[in-house]
Amino acid sequence: MMSFLATSPAFSQTNSKNPFGLPITSTAMAYKASYKEDKDKQLINIKKAIPDVVLDIRYATKNNFMKQVMYPKAKAFARASVVAQLKTIQAELRKKGYGLKIYDAYRPYAITMAFYEKASDKAFVADPAKGSKHNRGCAIDLSIINYKTKKEIAMPTPYDSFAPEAAAKYPNLPKNVLKNRDFLISTMQAHGFKVIPNEWWHFDFIGWQNYELMDVPFSIL
User: Fold this and answer.
1) Where are the beta strands (DSSP E) in the chain?
2) Is residue 192 helix, strand or coil?
3) How far apart are CA 123 and CA 3, in angstroms?
4) Residue 25 domain boundaries
5) Is 221 within the bounds of a domain?
6) 63: CATH
7) What is the model's pTM?
8) What's the pLDDT tens digit per position in 154-198?
9) What is the count of structural domains for the chain?
């Protein structure tokens, strides 16, 4: 991942603009100034804030559709307001014997560009001309696990599947899978998240428009 961030002059200036004309927060100075003015804009380490959440950060491994390591560390960050809601969700799930497993959260903009270049199906990756909610620290890819065993409950597809069954409203699935998927979606929606149509695991935080696109590396966070 670091090679994308370190070698391109497009990401070297405070609030620099990329080839599509988008303003991108890409320096430590610009990022720190943003959350100094608004504490909700700070990117929080999710695992530190919610110690019992399970991480399975696929882009820190080769177990992803890119088949290569994209993140230097298996960490997950999100805006402070997003993490506050995830903490509430985790507490509610825990009472029912469940917990959250997180696959991805904040994603530097340069990684979104790399995804778009390589993805065979562009419908499953964000258009860099618009940027991703992940780039804003306002999108979470996740599932539900049995809290005691840490095993995932049955869902329509594996994470990052490009299959039609990955759609949030795909109907032709076993009853238990439909129940699990809809339980996840309703739980997240009750706390300010909206699932996207073609990925049951991807949830955007309502109000994402208030947060800037970012290309700040994990090392700064």
Assistant:
1) 16-17, 23-24, 43-45, 54-55, 77-79, 98-104, 139-146, 193-196, 199-205
2) coil
3) 26
4) 2-216
5) no
6) 3.30.1380.10
7) 0.90
8) 999 999 999 999 999 999 999 999 999 999 999 999 999 999 999
9) 1
